[in-house]
Each structure stands twice: as structure tokens, then as C-alpha cells.
Amino acid sequence: MDADRVARSLARIAHEIIERNRTLEHVALVGIRARGVPLAHRLAAHLREFARAEVPTGALDITLYRDDLMRHAVGPQPVIRRTEIPFSIDDRLILLVDDVLYTGRTTRAALDALIDFGRPSAIQLVALVDRGHRELPIRADYVGRNIPTSRQQSVQVHLTEIDGRDEVEVEG
Amino acid sequence: MSTVTTLKSRHLLGIAELDPAEIDLILETALAMKEVGARPIKKVPTLRGRTIINLFFEPSTRTRMSFELAEKRLSADTLGMTTAGSSVAKGETLADTARTLEAMSPDMIVMRHGASGAPHQLARICKASIINAGDGMHEHPTQALLDAFTMVERKGRLAGLRVAIVGDLAHSRVLRSNALLLTRMGAEVRACGPATLVPVGLDRLGVRVTTSIDEAVDGADVVMMLRVQHERMHGLFLPSVREYFTLFGLTPARLERAAPDAIVMHPGPMNRGVEIDSEVADGPWSVILDQVANGVAVRMAVLYLLAGGEEGDR
Predict the structure, then answer these.
(1) Cα nearest neighbour of A73 on chain B
(2) Is the peptide bond before A34 cis (omega within 30 degrees of 0)?
(3) A35 Cα to chain B: minimum distance (Å)
(4) What is the residue-averaged pLDDT of chain B?
(5) Is the pLDDT of residue B238 over 90?
(6) How far apart are CA A126 and CA A30, in angstroms?
């Protein structure tokens, strides 16, 4: 996926969000660190442009909720970054944004984390890439692109804000 | 951002064993942990199923509660032992206590002990990660880390900060850990106390030693007052409490010599009217209660980072 394709996918997802939700008044975006966060901000910019809606945007670090954290007796702990959700999520529709949807375990952790912040009216999932191989009953509500992969492959998402360029690569 | 993502040791025995990158990592992790404490549900499932024993051979309220709260916020199972009423009161040695606890296979042991080096001995016997919560007159690493966290929060940095540490220098593990940490991170440390309470060789820690509080406080960004430890003194070192306050007590007038935006810290518990004037303790300079709040976040960070430890010694 090149930069143009990433941009068009995000614009389309923004239109789908507008189409599917009668009003954006109670909607908020929450990006999963690291690369879900710039994606959430880009979607917020699109929603501002397309629907003149100011959608609050936050960042969620799911490290403390990972299910594989304490299973490895060996190996360093992942570095924790800050969670920043500067608004109440109570009774809001939360659009949870991630770059790649794979096993669904990150999403599971994110759902647990979000629910500790309050009681949203609903949570919908946005993924730039869905590469399949789910291990939990989780699906995305908005998908940029479905990319069939094998488990041996890895999907690398590069975003300008973090990596200096927009690109999605499948390696291996 | 720190250049390392993991701590070298499985234990936290002292600041002496930490390098600057590791200190940065702990402080950065603590920043994320502080956010957990601001949530409506102040608990994350991270250390679920881990057992932590809190072993306190010396009286402690805030350190013990702070560790317990940190452990509970990370969902660890905790149990505490204080010496009164335990087998220690019946004459058990530290080594035997350690072996007994080891048989219960805890993942971590947090220990405060009156003897310097006691946690190091425990670390040699136990497989669990050992966290030093204060050993004798040696170190109190989590206190120095939470002090550093509070300084960074207020001042944005440690490098170049002028820090005055005033009080009973001889008996203070808080001083030792702070001096090690702050000099390692590039701060300028002045230590001040009565001549009878200045330990030999203190200047080797890289701090400037003085017996004049006015000299220590002059231009300081941070003034840290240490508690006068009655229980360690037996009246040998100081003529009277009143004289101590006259010569070394921090008053608003003395504080005027410090930098205009100076902050005042105290590891607690405070002796009002002995080392610190009430007006200072409750004044706008005081970050003493911030220190308490930050202590929980810093201890969560330490517990989290040590929990990922590898088998065997690193």
C-alpha cells in the first residue's frame, strides 16, 4: 500500500463513519499506541473537513493489559507509554483505531483498558489493514484494506508522523 | 527518551547499581503509571497472579502503604509482615526468615531493615526479586527515585539543578540515595547539617558539604529537608531541638535566599518546628504531598520493570 492508497483508505473510512452515524456529536476517536494514534488524528481531521465535526481524540497504551506480558519468564518488559484520554468516554461512541488487525489480542486488551475508563455507549473498531488469522471473536467495523497473509509474514505500517513516510509493506 | 528498555538487575538494591539510562527508564515508566492513578478505576491487570511479600523490620507508614498501593494497582497478590508478633520477635535470623519466605515462592520481596546491606543478603538467598525499601543508613532507592520524579515534574530536568539537602546527614539513607542519583544525573548537590552529623567521606559522593544552611540554600532550585531522627540519636549529637531549629530549621526568611521558584521537599514524616517551619511546610513552595502521590507511581514502575526479569542472576 503506497502513500496515496493509505490516504484514500482513510478518507473513505471517514465517509463511512459519517454515513453510518446519524450524528457525530457523541463520537470520539481513540488511537492505540503507537501507530493508531496518528491514524486517529488523521481521521479527526477528515471528519472536521467532511462533516465540520470536532471529534475529541485520545491515545491508548495497552501494554499493562497485554495477555502475554507475564507469560514469558525470560525477556524484558515492553516499554509503557502514556495513555491520554482527555475527555469522558461515558455514553460516547468510541471509534477505536489501530493500524493492523491480526490475532485480535491487542483489540481485546484495548477493550478491557477502555472499559476501565468508563462506560461508552458503543465501541467500533477501525483498522487500516486487516490481515486475518483471528484468535478471538473480534472483527473490524471499518477496514482500510484486507490483505491476505500467512502467519510467517509480517505487516509493517509506516506513517509519516512516526516513520517519515506512508507505506504498508508485507514482508517474508 | 531513555536509551534502554530494561533494567540490568533483577533486584533494586540501591541507586548505586543504576546507570543514568536506567534511571530515565524508571522515571518515564512512572509517568505512564501516574496516569493510571488518575483514572476512575485505578487498577490494571498487569501483575495478576504475582505474589509480593512486604517485609518491614522497621516501622514505616508511608513507604509500606505506598508499596502496598502500588502492588494493588498492578493487581499483584500481596502479604505483609511486620516484626512485631512475627517469628523475628522470637529470635529468628534474617537468613532463616528468608529461607522460610523463599519456600512460599514469592515473585518479589520488598524489604525494609535496620541493618545496612540486609536486602543484599536476602538477594543472595532468594530467587525472588528484592526491592530495598530502606536499609539502615545505606540506601532508600525508591525514595530518591520519587524525589527525582517530583523534581522533573516541577523543574523539567535534573541536569544543572541546584539541590540543597539539609539535616541529619549521618543517619540518612535518603541523603545517600539522593546524592548518588542526583550527581549521576548532573545535578549540583549541597549537603548541610550539624558538624556532629556529617559523616566522614561524604564529599566523596560528589556533594559539597557545609554546616551553614544559608550557604546551602543560596540560589537553590530545590531544598530538601531531612527528618531529625530522634530514634537514631539518643541525645548524643544535638544539644536541643530548639537549638537545631534556630541553626538548621527551614523558615520563610531562610528560603528567601533560594531561587525565586524554589521547591521544598521532605521525605516525611515531618517534625514541624524542628527541621521545618509550618509556614514553609504548608506554603506554596511545598511539594511534600506531591512526593507522596508520586511515590506510588514510581513504585509501580519499579515493580513492573523488575517483574519482567530473567531467571538467574543478571
Answers:
(1) B310
(2) yes
(3) 18
(4) 91
(5) no
(6) 10
Q: Using the beta-carbon criterion (under 8 Å), do B46 and A76 form an inter-chain contact?
A: no
**What are the b/e assignments for B5-27, b being 16+ CB within 10 Å?**
ebbebbbbbbbebbebebbbbbb
Q: Give the nearest chain A residue to B312 (CA atoms).
A: A74
pLDDT value for B85: 59
> ∠ at Cα B71 (B65, B76), nearest 5°?
140
What's the predicted TM-score (pTM) here? Answer: 0.90
Taking alpha carbons only, the member of B263, B254, B298, B279 closest to residue B163 is B263
Please list, in sequence order, all residues whose beta carbon lies within 8 angstroms of the beta carbon of residue A116, skipping any fewer than 6 positions away.
B39, B40, B41, B43, B44
ipTM given for this complex: 0.82
**Set of cell numbers at residue A157:** 505500517
Cα–Cα distance for residue pair B299/B294, rounded to 1 Å: 9
Nearest-CA distance from A99 to chain B in Å? 22
- pLDDT tens profile A70-96: 665 455 677 888 899 999 999 999 999
Q: pLDDT tens for residues A95-132?
A: 999 999 999 999 999 999 999 999 999 999 999 999 99
**Quick check: A47 and A171 in contact, CB under 8 A?**
no
**8 Å CB contact of B35 and A69:** no
B311·A77 Cβ contact <8 A: no
Q: What pLDDT digit, counting tens, does each position of A130-159 carry? A: 999 999 999 999 999 999 999 999 999 999
